[in-house]
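Q: Sequence in, structure out?
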Amino acid sequence: MYGNTPFAGAEGDAPPQLSTDQRRRLRRDLATVAARTRELLPDEFAVGLELAQGAEGPRATVAVQPPVGSAVSAGYTPEDDADLRIGEDEQTDLAQGLAASAALQMKQAMGSEHSPTAQ
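A: Exactly. Output:
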């Protein structure tokens, strides 16, 4: 509706862009989260990552697909343009949270008929 107005697409509305170095650092941090998540789960769980430029700026996602059940993911949007790093503690929290969520997702998908019984 306002596509032809002078204020449409104004420069101040442009989302922040990552420099090559910032993108490299953020991707390295994401790869660390993905690797830590893989260490916590059996090999049957698929772990992937994505770094994309969204409407609000850079958006990072790490996702886990359990062998049974729906995929789970954690999104990360850097808050400070100057420091686009995921801290060590935050990396650990993300990896542990994803692994736990994926394991729970698989357990719920399998249902109680596959649960071990006490004898």
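The beta strands are 46-54, 57-65, 72-76.
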